[in-house]
Design brief:
The complex is a heterodimer.
Chain A (H helix, E strand, L loop, with lengths): L1 H37 L8 H4 L6 H6 L1 E11 L5 E11 L9 E8 L7
Antiparallel strand pairs in A: 1-2, 2-3
Chain B lengths: L1 E3 L5 E3 L34 H54 L3 E4 L7 E5 L5 E7 L2 E7 L6 E6 L3 E8 L4 E8 L19 E8 L2 H11 L1
Antiparallel strand pairs in B: 1-2, 3-4, 4-5, 5-6, 6-7, 8-9, 9-10
The chains are: A alpha+beta, B alpha+beta.
Chain lengths: 114, 216
């Protein structure tokens, strides 16, 4: 009876560890994409160019069915663009996880980033 | 009254004799009833019964011990993973803060990839180097007060890279799985895949912003 109860407990612990690990990988992935975006010139921040952004190999291997969505919007303030990065993936059980979002503001001033 | 308990022994109960009260209580010797089997009184338990009880207890104790050990190891593994996760987050936060305020990044030391140095425009520098148990950050600001931080990442391989013409510091952290760390059989959990984390930090983001504002 003890072992019967122990099995689900250990399984739940493992799933929690995997979910925490996946979440950290997702957080780092979004932050890394934001870092790379900050190096891009203003002219390169077009919807067509942003659609070409891909996940890193680490994220592809670690996150199941991971997908990155990049949305570009002109901010109310002139010469400011708001870039929304949204990363979604599935947990070890195959369920969709609430996606993570990171918003980056890019200013037209050379090198100006938030 | 005479009966039999679970051990087959006769049990005597006091018999009241009319109105003579407590003083009149007498005990009657056990007497087998007609048609009922008589059990000889037992003075103890057999060796077989003792062996059965001892075996059952030993199995129960072994099961409990194994369960406790597994739970303790699971707790230890989870604690180690949490500590490594927090350390990695701290390293990412500090590295990005240092890189954003730096003017340049370059290799430091005789071998490329062992240490990286971030310098600001005021003479301060921050050095990130591999140590025996992880990463060591040595900050030397312009006033000369040295501060050292250690990021303990046991059983972890850390690699540095300078990408985008030195504008992007890339740190690759590979934490081996418990099985490859020689812990096979000790961990109750199935071995998770090795953790691979990447931290990227753009050099000079804050510096560029300040210079742009100054140009206004």
């Amino acid at each position: 009876m003890v072992f019967v109860a122990l099995g689900p407990v250990l399984h739940a612990i493992r799933q929690q560890r995997e979910q925490a690990q996946q979440r950290q990988i997702a957080l780092l992935e979004l932050a890394n994409q934001a870092e790379r975006l900050s190096l891009r010139a203003w002219e390169e921040l077009t919807p067509e160019r942003l659609e070409q952004i891909e996940l890193s190999e680490t994220a592809k291997q670690s996150l199941r069915q991971a997908s990155l969505r990049v949305a570009l919007a002109e901010d109310a303030e002139p010469l400011v663009r708001r870039i929304t990065l949204e990363l979604s993936w599935h947990d070890p059980a195959g369920r969709g996880v609430s996606p993570l979002r990171l918003v980056v503001w890019k200013y037209a001033v050379e090198g100006g980033t938030p | 009254m005479t009966g039999h308990n679970c051990w087959g022994r006769s049990v005597e109960t006091p018999v009241h004799r009319g109105s003579r009260g407590d003083a009149a209580r007498r005990f009657r010797a056990p007497r087998p009833h007609e048609g009922q089997r008589s059990h000889p009184p037992r003075a103890g338990v057999s060796l077989l019964e003792v062996l059965v009880v001892m075996t059952t207890l030993s199995v129960l104790l072994t099961t409990c011990t194994v369960t406790l050990m597994r739970l303790l190891r699971a707790q230890s593994a989870s604690g180690g993973a949490l500590a490594a996760s927090l350390t990695t987050s701290r390293l990412a936060r500090d590295l990005r803060r240092d890189a954003h305020t730096a003017a340049a990044a370059a290799w430091d030391g005789p071998v490329a990839g062992e240490a990286i140095e971030l310098t600001d425009g005021n003479g301060g520098r921050v050095r990130y180097a591999l140590s025996t148990e992880g990463v060591r950050r040595t900050s030397t600001p312009a006033d000369g007060r040295v501060a050292v931080d250690d990021y303990l990442l046991p059983a972890t391989k850390v690699e540095w890279e300078l990408a985008e013409s030195g504008l992007l510091v890339v740190v690759r952290i590979s934490r081996s799985s418990p099985s490859s760390r020689g812990e096979t059989g000790t961990s109750p959990l199935p071995a998770p895949p090795p953790e691979r984390l990447v931290i990227e930090a753009a050099v000079g983001r804050a510096v560029k912003t300040i210079s742009a504002e100054e140009r206004k």
